[in-house]
Amino acid sequence: MTFSTSRASVAASPAVGREPAVKSGKTAAGPEFGALAQASILIVDDEPGMRNFLVRTLGPRCKLVDEAADTDQASRKLDSNRYDVVILDNIMPGKNGVDWLAEQRAVGFFADAILITAYADLDTAIQALRAGAADFVLKPFRSNQILNAVARCLDRVRLQRENYVLRYALRASSDRTFLRDNLIGQSAATLRVRETIARVARLPTSVLLTGASGTGKEVAARSIHSLSDRADKPFVPVNCAAIPPDMIEAELFGHIKGAFTGADSGREGLFLYAHGGTLFLDEIGELPLPMQSKLLRVLEDRRVRPVGSEREVPVDLRFIFATNAELQKEVENGRFRADLFYRLNVMQIPLPLLKDRGDDVQELAAIFMSKLSAQLGMPPVPIDASVRAALASYDWPGNVRELRNLIERTLILGAFPDDFAGPRNDGQSAPADSLAELERRHILGVLKEVNGNREEAARRLGVSRKTIDRKCALWDV
């Protein structure tokens, strides 16, 4: 908590009266107050002159500035709006600012509060600190003092949220890839996904990404966010399967102090941390049924109620969901709410399997080899013709994640594993029970069944004709 003072000897009202008017659209204080541009501020003061001064000072620089003449009016505004900072006079008729702030903290008020007062005694400062005030500005003050106080609050909150989101992302997703922000590949399947993403990204529509594990659903979600008008706002990924069921509500919605055992202080949840940006809920099919009904309320009302709170907080979010489960079957089996499924399934984008992405596997393998070798400090392993053929013919049940793991294992061993890369480095054939040999026998067996018709063999095997051609060329068939 900081204390801003002024040496001005004039009274509060004359000081306000002599402040120059701020012209609309100008930022006289310079770029250091750029953080204010998207801020929502509530001014609570019983003096019309002070409210007018603060509105003239903050209005041209902030997205929204509301005012309240007393704490009752301020409470009603908090019920219907979300504010980043509340500027609060301490001495007001009926209820002083410190007592009102303490009451609001107890019912779910998380925004920073700046207390303004003409009485700079130690008891007031201690009470303000205990009530949760972030700053303390003494009257009389000038415009730059209040602007600096608001900017400090916004910067502090931004850093707190960024740090929390980064820590959460690292904790919840240990299997990071280097390509999380890029959808790599030029195959027809990849181009179709990219085209769909480009069409939906700039719309507010919720998106449901489906596909097997490792197909790049988070990559697609980040692409949607980066192409949207929220690209400069937070992208918050949440793995619903990684959060214990008894903690998921507090993680998503936040909680007030004392809401449950161990809640020593209040905290905003991931919904509020993603405010203005995109919330990516991965493995949505793993969300417990009680949380599914709460999520449905959020989607319909765009308001969240922190655990233990009496107040719902408005949120502005773009939702992206992902699942590797067939949600329609989960609905039929009673494990997923039908009303939530239909609410999610507005725009569905299926992510293709790696085996159906043609030459994308070659491009991905080369990129992984380059990036991982630099990270591990090991020389890259050449990807020769036999390895490329094996990459093209393998089924990739683990998709892109399996490919990345293969490349990392290859770098550690110094060569591609013998059970993968066809002919071995010493020129010997692959063992009879190796993966490459099993695949060879299986593909040749299918070709024999269809009298050498490669198109029909590719259809039966669920691969492209090009894959069959490559394998046949490798085996000199």
List low-pLDDT spans: 3-31, 172-181, 422-430
What can be said about the biggest beta sheet? 6 strands, parallel
Mean pLDDT level: 82
**Strand percentage:** 5-15%
Overall domain count: 4
Q: How far is the first residue's CA from the last residue's CA?
A: 77 Å
Q: How many distinct beta strands?
A: 15
Shape: elongated
Number of helices: 19
Domain Response regulatory: 40-154
GO molecular function: ATP binding; sequence-specific DNA binding
Keywords: Activator, ATP-binding, DNA-binding, Nucleotide-binding, Phosphoprotein, Transcription, Transcription regulation, Two-component regulatory system
Protein name: Fis family transcriptional regulator
Describe this structure in words.
This protein has 477 residues and is an alpha/beta fold. The protein folds into 4 domains: 40-156, Response regulator (Rossmann fold); 173-352, P-loop containing nucleotide triphosphate hydrolases (Rossmann fold, 3-Layer(aba) Sandwich), CATH 3.40.50; 355-413, Helicase, Ruva Protein, domain 3, CATH 1.10.8; 435-475, Homeodomain-like (Arc Repressor Mutant, subunit A). Helices cover 44% and strands 13% of the residues. It has helices at residues 12-18, 48-58, 71-80, 97-106, 122-131, 143-172, 188-200, 217-227, 248-253, 270-273, 289-301, 327-332, 338-344, 360-376, 385-393, 399-413, 435-449, 454-461, 465-474, and strands at residues 2-4, 40-44, 64-68, 85-89, 112-117, 135-138, 207-210, 235-239, 254-255, 267-268, 278-282, 303-304, 313-314, 318-323, 347-350. The strands form 4 sheets. Strands 1-6-5-4-2-3 form a 6-stranded parallel sheet, sandwiched between helices. Strands 8-11-14-7-15 form a 5-stranded parallel sheet. Residues 3-31, 172-181 and 422-430 have low confidence and may be disordered.
